[in-house]
Amino acid sequence: MTRRAPFIVIEGLDRSGKSTQTALLLQRMKATNIPAQLVKFPDRTTAIGQMINSYLQSDSDLDDRAIHLLFSANRWELASTIEQLLNSGISVVCDRYAFSGIAFSASKGLSYEWCRSPDISLPAPDLTLFLDISPEAAKERGGYGEERYEKEEMQRKVGEIFRRIGREISADGGKWVNIDAGREREAVAEEIWKWVEGVANGAVGPSRRLWT
Ligand code: FDM
Ligand code: MG
């Protein structure tokens, strides 16, 4: 019987180096013969993903709740694929997940509980690594981009909500790690690797669902 592989989520603020670190992690897993697959949310390739993309690029406007539900639906359309990968022994490394969903929507004023509900019972990560960076350090890295949400005030609020989610996940027995992403790339990669090695080599329990 194939052993279930771990589900690893990388969350982070804009300019935290999330995409770079995700790529480095996947390279290293492959080099160590840990089969792994990258999944990225939003997945802009699906029909729902294209609506999200158009919203993020400000080509379309949507009600805050409508876009929130599309982000969640975009995860649900990939949920069974993620489970199949894990059950066939392939680790999934996910660049953003439901925690981004809550953090970004709640920072616009929607209720935290309301934001959480559509993601209840999605596959739960075995490890979540949150790449934390101050808006000041982000600015030093060249500042934010052009997309909706890439603004200092928004990022500050999003960061606060991410930290709250982390406290709740930890209190609930989940594994959430805050990583200081303001450091050099290699130092951050090394810390990420330590945590991933731990879950990749340890016992992975039965699959769990978010907030159930
Ligand atoms: N984002 C991402 C959300 O608002 N909700 C979500 O559920 C997810 C997954 O989309 F500003 C936001 C976060 C970010 C934007 O993400 C696009 P990437 O990682 O830059 O593609
Ligand atoms: Mg972005």
Q: Helicity range of the residues?
A: 40-55%
The major beta sheet can be summarized as: 5 strands, parallel
Strand numbers in spatial order across the main sheet: 2-3-1-4-5
- Give the total of beta strands: 5
- Broad structural category: alpha/beta
CATH uppermost class: Alpha Beta
Helix/strand order: EHEHHEHHEHHEH
Report the C-alpha radius of gyration, rounded.
16 Å
Protein name: Thymidylate kinase
Pathway: Pyrimidine metabolism; dTTP biosynthesis
Family: Belongs to the thymidylate kinase family.
Pfam families: Thymidylate_kin
Keyword list:
binds 3'-fluoro-3'-deoxythymidine monophosphate, globular, 212 residues, binds magnesium ion, Rossmann fold, 5 strands, 5-stranded parallel beta sheet, alpha/beta
Briefly characterize the structure.
This protein is α/β, with parallel strands linked by helices and 212 residues long.
Written description of the protein model:
The protein has 212 residues and is of the alpha/beta class. It has one domain (7-201): 3-Layer(aba) Sandwich (Rossmann fold). Helices cover 50% and strands 13% of the residues. It has eight helices and five strands, in the order βαβααβααβααβα. The protein has helices at 18-31, 47-56, 64-87, 98-106, 112-116, 135-140, 152-171, 185-201, and strands at 7-12, 36-40, 91-95, 127-132, 176-180. A five-stranded parallel β-sheet has the order 2-3-1-4-5, sandwiched between helices. Helix 1 crosses helix 8. The model has no long low-confidence stretch (mean pLDDT 96). It is an enzyme of class 2 (transferase). Keywords: ATP-binding, Kinase, Nucleotide biosynthesis, Nucleotide-binding, Transferase. Pfam families: Thymidylate_kin. This is Thymidylate kinase. GO terms for molecular function: ATP binding; dTMP kinase activity; nucleoside diphosphate kinase activity.
